[in-house]
Structure formats: structure tokens, C-alpha cells
Amino acid sequence: MRKAKACAIVLSVLLLDAAGTGSPVLPAVPRTSGCADQPNALRDLIVSKERQELDALKAGDRKTFADLISDDAVFVDPRGPATKDEVVKSTAELKLHEYSMDDIRFLPISATAGLICYKLTEKATSHGRDMAGQVYVSATWIKRKDQWVCIFSQETPVK
Questions:
Q1: Which CATH class is domain 2-26+36-157?
Q2: Cα dihedral 133→96→70→141 (10° resolution)
Q3: pLDDT band (50, 70, 90) for residue 38
Q4: β partners of residue 116
């Protein structure tokens, strides 16, 4: 069931891309009244939410980290798909020391949803072991009941 959800989300993103230019960054969504720079504002908001999630990991604030993730979220990494509970549990021993987000790209999905892709460089400690590395991240954020939450995230190691 988890694999089916992950595949459905990835497929929907791919279909959105097929409707655009073939580029990972689609043309801006139509502007809505009351916000002259809607696409940039949405991009900035979603990037700030992603940073808030990473900053929560850096601060060891598990509650904030968990609150930023939708209960039905799907996360995918080289080990396969995971639920919110599995991700929160697996990061319990993680202490993020430093991170940077580079080459950030944005895909607007609607006025209240968007996808960002970027290269994450991080230094952390997990289960007493120091680690450092880079991954490509894609994350889909959506506004639900006046709260922005991540509903999908995928990490691919940089080779």
C-alpha cells in the first residue's frame, strides 16, 4: 500500500511535468487576485517551510519536525518508502549539525501546493556516528486547514 501511494504521487508529478516544457521547473501558475507576485511568494513560503523542517532537526525539536509532516505523508529514500511515523522514529537519534540547500528549483502545483527540488549538503551525527554527505531532495508541500505540511519527500544520494 505504501508503494502504491508513493508511485501515485510520483506519477502525478511526472504528469504535471509532461504538461509543461519538459523542464523540472514549469511556467508559473496563474496569478491570483490580491498577490501580485504569487509564484515567487509560494516558492519562498515552501522553501521556508523546508528550512523550518531542517532547522527543527538541527535544534533537536522533534515536535516541530513532526508537526510539519502530514499524517499521510510518504517519504522515499534508497531503502524504500516510509510513513510519517517511520521517519519521525528513524530521525530520533539524528542530530543535524550543518546543512545547505543549493540549486533550488520550484514547481507550482496550485495556489496552495508546490514542489521543490534541491541539493542538500549536510553534516550530522546519527547513533553516535558522524556522517556527512549530499542528497538530491524533492518535497511536496500543501496547505491543509491553514497549516502547511509536507506530503511527500524523496532523497537520492549524489554520486
A1: alpha beta
A2: -60
A3: low
A4: 106, 139
Q: What pTM value is reported for the model?
A: 0.76
CA 155 centroid distance within chain: 9
Q: Which of 8, 2, 25 is nearest to 77 (CA)?
A: 2
45 phi/psi in degrees, rounded to 5: -65, -45
Q: Tell me which amino acid residue 76 is.
A: V
Per-domain residue ranges of the chain: 2-26+36-157
Q: Determine the Cα–Cα distance for residues 61 and 57; give it in Å rounded to an integer.
A: 6
Determine the Cα angle at 145 with ends 139 and 150, to 5°: 10
Strand order in the sheet with 69-77: 80-82, 69-77, 147-157, 129-144, 113-126, 94-110
pLDDT tens string 105-127 = 999 999 999 999 999 999 999 88
3 state SS of 21:
coil
